[in-house]
């Protein structure tokens, strides 16, 4: 499926480009101190990596249920990819501010907003597909609503993280970390193993 | 299909590399001001991203109708990819000129020409495939002409944008933005949803 | 298969980004001397390239035997990819230290630890899949144990390389080079050719 | 087919990373002059792009005829990819020397050798596959010899280009340009169009 394969490639490239934002310490510094001083870069790298991993997984969940795509779906999906491919820049801004200690509030809010706009584009694709009846017949109305709720929760959660970050930067970051934990960790009784072989997607 | 998969990968990588041209503000500037001052980079990023998204979609339209490729098709397609993969450089030139305010005319014309050469390589692939009768039998002569007209329109549109940009830079940019809008927005009655599942491409 | 295709893309991108760490000599130096002086970069490039090539091959061996993935497998696999995508940074640190001659001990240990954490994530995926009975029925208990032993050997080998590197940097590097040789070179009677055509993976 | 898909990804990424070596002119120079002064970068970009395009096409020709891969084939193929992924660095060295006018002999020879080592790894894969009888039954002995000759010709051609470049840099470059022309341009009666649809590769 073209749209999903193309999107997957963009996710994979974005996630791998994140490391380019981490620069090795200058030659004249103590290397061990220099490597330890890069903790903001490592933290930002890990948080964004896990977030894009979620984006990838949820993008599949979403397109598993969309049976047909018109031009608006393609456009909304390109906007989604445009926001995701922008995340390495937001990550670099966050790491820089945590490193110097200056402008952390601005950097954290910017970072949270970038994540929240990603959630916004997810909601746009899903709401449009629901209204235009582009969903698979195998998904009933309750199922569509459940997925939509999940995406709305992400939108609200990340908006709150941005607001918390505006009050106290560390709270915004904690909100993002909690977001990653909540969406990645398995919930008891919810996570059936999916067969890998013969998976057409 | 090898040629299309390889081309898709180049499109996906190019589109994702665009963000590398955006550098975070220097540590000693006000971060909010610095982020706002990067608006030329954001604008150039978005315009090129949407344009390459169109290139990707139209490349599929084109190769959906080409049933066989000889060595000339492969060569013309490689030239097409060479121009597309060059676009991040043109984008960087544009963003730099908009940022400093110097040499905007040169930068806009250079940017428009890069886009127009992309359209030129599209036309070259299509015209060659038409003349060598490499098109699918499912496409009748009227259909082939319609697609050719669409590609010729792009060629003319982007050439005019370059000329307008030479007169007044902002007009050239407006021409490109209008181009993106025209090719992305759905036209009433024209945009049937395509099934995603079982799509072999 | 989505998980494997996505992982393959991350491996391919990571392996190709390694070259970006090699910068051409400054314009005012003798170019031949400059190119020769970059031997630490070439060495680090080749060693990491071959290592990631092994990671790619072994990732396929592993997922050939995992019949189903739950959310924990996806999470552990994302952690594996996060460590692999980090390797260009560790490679850059190693090349820098070998180039200047300073802090080589720190750089070699850092590099070996990065490799060893990769092995750790492999073991985590495999042990989890074994315990949750997510393995293919075609793999008997002895086969699963043999693969697990192979991964444990890598974990121990790379840990020892880190310890050796802490004692004498060149020993740590020799440990990594020997690791690449051991896992890449064919063992007599062990290496049947696998058919390429019709290979579903 | 895993090996080919992975190799394709490395080719596509390498070809697209080439543009990162082209840096926009400094803000304080006349932009038009600055863009024109980058002609060595454009030339090196185009030559390497077309060369890697050939590598991609020939890699498919080669693996179309290899029916099975053992561990040595995988290792030789990884070495081939390692050399290809290194080409952006050689391209950067060439562009830098052409730009400053210094050390052109060294740069051209280095560039030609990098191309020739690529041809060497091609020959290594093919010779090994021939000797180990890993070729498809559909290819008779004469066909295998013809492909081997073609690869040997590339090896000799690029070695001669390196020697010519050592005598006079422009001759070495001319040798590479002629190489691209010879392998890309269709030969009369030789180039049947290949069907794209239903192509399993």
Helix content of chain A: over 70%
Report the count of strand segments of chain A: 2
β-strand percent of chain A reads under 5%
First-to-last CA distance of chain A: 7 Å
Q: Average pLDDT across residues of chain A?
A: 92
Which outline of chain A best applies?
elongated
Biggest sheet details of chain A: none
Largest interface pair: A-B, 44 and 39 residues
Element-by-element helix/strand order of chain A? HHHEHHHHE
Oligomer, anyone?
Answer: homotetramer
Uncertain stretches of chain A: none
Give the radius of gyration of chain A. 18 Å
Please count the helical segments of chain A.
Answer: 7
Q: Please state the structural category of chain A.
A: mainly alpha
Report on this model:
The structure is a homotetramer of 201-residue chains. Chain A is mainly alpha-helical and 201 residues long. The first copy, chain A, is built from 7 helices and 2 strands, in the order αααβααααβ. Chain A has helices spanning 2-17, 31-37, 39-64, 71-100, 104-131, 141-167, 169-184, and strands at residues 68-69, 194-195. In chain A, helix 1 runs antiparallel to helix 3. The B-D interface holds B 1-6, 9-10, 13-14, 17, 20, 63, 66-75, 78, 81-82, 85-86, 88-89, 92-93, 96-97, 100, 102-103, 106-107, 110, 132, 134, 136, 200 and D 8-9, 11-13, 15-20, 22, 24-25, 27, 30-32, 35, 45-46, 49-50, 53, 56-57, 60, 184-186, 191-197, 199, 201. Strand 1 of chain A pairs antiparallel with strand 2 (194-195) of chain B, so a sheet runs across the interface.
